[in-house]
Amino acid sequence: MGFKVSFIGAGSIGFTRTLLRDLMTVPEFREGVDVSFTDLSERNLDMVRQLCQRDLDHNGIKVAIQATTDRRAALKGAKYVFCVARIGGLEAFQSDIDVPLGYGVDQCVGDTLCAGGVMYGQRGIAAILDFCKDIREVGAPGAMLFNYSNPMAMLTWAANKYGGVKTIGLCHGVEGGHNQIADCTMYWARRQGLIGAEETVTAEAIDIVAAGINHQTWYVKAQWRGIDLIPKMLELFEGHPNYPTTEKVRIDMLRRFGYYSTESNGHLSEYVPWYRKRTDQIKDWIDLGCWINGETGGYLRVCTEGRQWFETEFPEWLKQPPNDIKPEHRSHERGSWILEALETGRTFRGHFNVPNNGAIANLPADAIVEVPGYVDRNGINIPIVGELSLGCAAVCSVSISVQRLAVEAAVHGNDQLLRQAMMMDPLVGAVCTPPEIWQMVDEMLVAQAQWLPQYGKAVAEAKARLAGGKKIATRQTQGAARLHTKTLEEQRADKDEATKNASNADKAKERPAAAAAK
What is the signed CA dihedral for 159, 162, 163, 168, rounded to 10 degrees? Predict the structure, then answer.
C-alpha cells in the first residue's frame, strides 16, 4: 500500500509526533508509505524529525522521513497533506492577545473568533492558499488537505472556495465534551441506582451527534442505554462535582439555549458578547485551575512555555526512550482514522469540518460546519443533520457572518471588510466603539505586516494614521485574569509536567484536579 503523506508546519512537536505515531499503528501503513515534513524553521524541523525517526526505528518501521524547508519538494507526489502550521508563530500570537487588551478585549485563546482569531485568519488564509497552489501543482492528482490549524472554519472555507483543494477540517473539541457527558452520566447514574458505586460510564457507551460550527458545535443527540440524555443535560452538569466551577459559561449557555456546547469554557466565553465584556465580572465566569477554563491569554502562555521548554531541553528529550507505537497508544485525533478508512475500507465515523451544502438546513450553504461523517473507500460522506434549534442556529449565524467577512477580507486584501468583520464580532462589538475598532485594526495590521502580504497598501495607510492623527487612548492592562508565564527555571521544578505540556497536541486534555477547588 503505497502513498505519500506530508506535514506542513511539522515543527509543531505535539501534533506532528502524535499524528505520525497514530498513522503507524495501522498495520498496512508500516511499510510502503512515504512521509515528508516541511517547516519554515530548519532547527524546529530537524528536532522533530530526529524524535519521530527514533520512534519509527525503535518500532522497526521501515519509513525514512524526508524533512525539508522546501515546501514544494515535500509536497511532491503527496496524496494526503496535514496542515499543523501556526502562521506568525508566537510573535504574532502575542499581538493577537496584547493589542486587543489595550481596547478592553480580554481573550482566553484568541485563535478562532474575536480580534485575535480574525487576525490569525488573515495570516493563515494567505498561507493556506499558497499551500493549496503547491498541492495542486506538485501533489498527487486529487490530493486531500486535512487542516488542523486555527481558525479552523476560516482556513477550511478559504481552501475549499479559493484553494482548489478538497480540504477537511479536524478538531478534537467534540471528543472533549463527549468525555464530559460520559463523566456526568456516570455520577447521575450512580445517584439513580442505575450502576454501582464503582462502575464507570465511558464515552464509547454514549452515542452522540454534534452539529454546528467549529468551536460552537452543539450536542444535539446523546443516548445511553436507550435513555435520551438531552432533556437531562442541565441536571447532569449541575450535578457534577467539578463542572459547575470549571464550566460556568458552558452550563449557563446550556441553561439558556438548551444544548451543551462542544467548546471549552475559555474558548466559548470569547465567542459570545455576554461573559467577558466587563472586566470586573470576567472572574465570575471563569476558573483559574486550568488555562482553558478562561485565563486571560492562557493558550499563549502554555504555548510559550511549551516551545521554550522543547527548544531548550531538546538534548534531554533525545535521552528519553522513544515512543512505543502500538494500537493502545493511538490517539483520538481523527486524521489517522480517516486515512485508514479511505485506504483500507474499514468504516470510520467521526465529526468533521466541511462545507455545509445543506447538512444543517438553517445555516448558510457556503459555511463550514462541524457535523458527523462516515468514511470508507468511497470517501467522506456527510449525512443530513436537519435544523438546529433557532437559538443555537442564531449563535452560529452571527459567527458565520464574521467568518465570511474575514475570509473575503483575507483573500482580497480588503481592509474595509476586515474592519467590518471586527465590528460584527460579538465580543469586540460588545466592548469597543467603531473608532476604537478602526484604530485597533490599524495597530494589528502594522504589528503583523510581515505575515500579511495582501495588505501592503493598507499597512502603509495604517502606519501613516497612527503616526499622524490624535490617537484614542488605550489601556495599560494585563487583563482580568492573566497568570505569569513560567521561566525555564520554574518549569524545571516539575520537568514531567513541562514535557507533557510541550508534547501534547491537546494542551488541556489532562486538566488538574485542583481546578475544581478554585
Answer: 30
**Residue-wise DSSP of 169-192:** E--SHHHHHHHHHHHHHHHHHHHH
* Within-domain flag for 37: yes
Segment 399-424, tens digit of pLDDT: 999 999 999 999 999 999 999 999 99
Q: Which residue has the cell 485597533?
A: 440
The reply to whether 142 falls in a domain is: yes
Nearest-angstrom CA–CA distance, 201 and 191: 13
**Structural domain count, the chain:** 1
Which residues are marked as active site?
172, 271
Q: Which domain holds residue 55?
A: 3-89+120-171
pTM exceeding 0.90: yes
**pLDDT digit string, tens, across residues 357-375:** 999 999 999 999 999 999 9
What is the Cα–Cα distance from 232 to 202, expressed in whole angstroms? 18
Q: Is residue 160 part of a domain?
A: yes
| Cβ–Cβ < 8 Å for 329, 25 | yes
How far apart, in whole angstroms, are the C-alpha atoms of residue 74 and residue 82? 12
The answer to whether position 475 is within a domain reads no
pLDDT band at 217 (very low <50, low <70, confident <90, very high): very high
Q: State the number of CA atoms in the 13 A half-sphere of 485 facing the CB.
A: 16
The CATH number of whichever domain residue 163 belongs to comes to 3.40.50.720
